[in-house]
Amino acid sequence: MVSSPPGQGTVRTDLEQVFRTAYPRVVAVAARVLGARDEAEDVAQEVFLTFGRSKVPAGEAQAWLSVAAAHTALNHLRSGRRRASREEAADDGQAVSPDIADAVVTRDERRRVRVALARLPRRQAVALVLRHSGLSYAEVAAALDLSPGSVGTIVRRAESALRKELNDHASSD
Amino acid sequence: MRHPTDGTLRRLVDEPAGVADADREHVAGCPVCLAGLASAQEDAAAVGAALSFDSTVDVDAGWRRLAGAAEGRPGTVVPRRRRLALLRSPLVAAVSVVALLIGGSAAAAADWLQIFRTEQIAPVVAPESELVKLPELDAFGQVQVTEEVDIRQVADAGAAAKATGLSVPRVSRLPKGVTGDPTYHVLGRVSGVFTFSAAKAAQTTKAAGQTPVPPPPGLDGSQFQLSAGPGLAAAWTAGRPVPALVVARAVAPTAASSGVPFETARDYLLSLRILPENVASQLRAFSSDGMTLPLFTSVEQLASTAADVGGVPATVLTSRDGAMAAVVWVIDGNITVVAGSLDADEVLSVARELRWDR
After folding, report:
1. Which candidate, A3, A44, A65, A25, places its Cα nearest to that of B66?
2. Do B343 and B215 fall within a single domain?
């Protein structure tokens, strides 16, 4: 997504303020797609570098950044630029930690989720990830230029498809 | 009336206020729609669990990295903070900002005044969207890790006991479907020192859209020691990727202050009004005892209920999709967890029948 060398062009003056507000959410969106924090942070850096050189109105920054994070992360998934070792490193030790949330999704399940996400139509995948990252229906609708009514339909379809993919893989194991 | 669309049923799952009254009333009395709603709930919960990821981040490190890149400094690399992130796993993180919010006075040790020790656990239930808004500790100052997270597998129960000084759990009767011998894992002690910064607190307050409040005298630059562990776990995996059963025990988190009165820090942080109100009000409910560790629980993913294990109050967590359950309790300054791909009755049964080798 970021192709020009950093440091060229004018960096917008509100970058730090926007970064400090939006960075956790941008990483969260990317992490849901990629399942790896380090890689999600890399995606967030790419997204903010692009944003820093953009003229996106400040009022639209959050939505723009969330959508950009989802797309960039999905691009990473689909372009095969992922490094499996990172994901494995991210799992190291967590399977046995008493951290309940971490125990819910195992490494294999995570891998299946990423494969299934990459197979979804792009708009479904983005809407799904944004909604599960805490954006409201109205925010998802605004970010993707949809009507709030259709967000539910798209998210529902995505969840149904994702669950089917997960179940199919689970039953074929 | 026509049945509401699948999209409307989906919105009823997690944003019902956005659904028209007429649709809500229809669904409440329509078996077809109720079945559709149940199916939407199941799919949403399963996908939510599959996509869940603890993505706590270090905003300052991220900003330094970006600022370096934006300035074109070649090779600007901020070390990945995986280990620091681990330090912020729920077990340890809960003692951080929250320790300042709920501590109390206790015995003084050397120059450090213990302001928080875990004697019980209480769930703080909130939507995930609110939990992700909770500020990190380093939003209020600097965190220096003095003992990093170190988790490793050991040969047997004896080695786990020797490495941690803790007694090892013995499960009297394995639940149905759990077989084989456990593997043993140990976690070293994790600790860090947090130094409060008025400037950072002001920045965080501003970023949250609130007006910064000057801190009371003495708070700026004051230090807090946070620690947890060591701990050990026995895991029954029986060749599966997910442990069927895990029994873990760890020395519970504590916090000590370099001398600033606890109430000063607590009152100041609450005055900033940057915690989601729903979370803040739950914290206030047990903010005075300095012994209750909050267990942040996403309302979308987990349900919590109260129980007891051997007469000690315990919290039972069950995933909304029914895939797993856990029970957690504190005794003698140690946190114990029994968790697995089991139901609530099964984890409670294991917990109540545990024996601890000395």
Report:
1. A44
2. yes
